[in-house]
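Bumping with the actual sequence this time:
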Amino acid sequence: MNGSHDETEGEGASSEAADRAAKGGPDGGEIPRNNPLRRLYDWVLHWADTPYGVPALFAISFAESSFFPLPPDPLLLALCLGASKRSLRFAAICTVASVLGGLAGYAIGAGAWHLAQDWFFTYVPGVSPEAFESVRVFYDRHGFAAVFLAGLTPVPYKVFTLASGVFGISLGIFVPASILSRGFRFFLVAGLVYWFGPPIERFIDRHFDRLVIVFSVLFVLGFIAIEFLL
């Protein structure tokens, strides 16, 4: 049947995508194999070639929003390339899990930071007192746009989720900004694969950070235009 044939092709394509992605980071350079992050990166990608790819995508997306050091994008890309017609479903799963993980990070910051802060500052890359102060200043100046850009760009989203809870940033701002930014980021990847298929993989892999920055600038300019025109 077609479903069985598509599934077989999907597994093969996922395996090939994972193999190619594991050779290096977004800039195309090879990550040394003795690098701990490389081993973690390989571990994330290996789920694309197992029956547990979707549950792993949900778990990694959730965890990355508060403590896990690597984003779910490489696994999302590998799964999308393995079954391009299901790309939008994968992006939806990624978005829901990431926002729920963001709320978990917010809850940690709001209710348990006095117990957890030493562990986060010591073991979670990008989480530091200096980063928290930068978040506070950035949010005071830019409000909604600060959370939106953190969820969309390479800025560590986990820093914003934890700091948002610590500083009591309004959930009425945090949740919509997280949904929009996380959804935009993941659906951008999934949508390109859905419409263009495997040929788009190399382009996304090389230029992902530039793509999200360009689109986030356009988004902010849209807000500015609305503010001046209305």
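The tokens above came from a reply further down the thread. The chain has one domain: 2-229.
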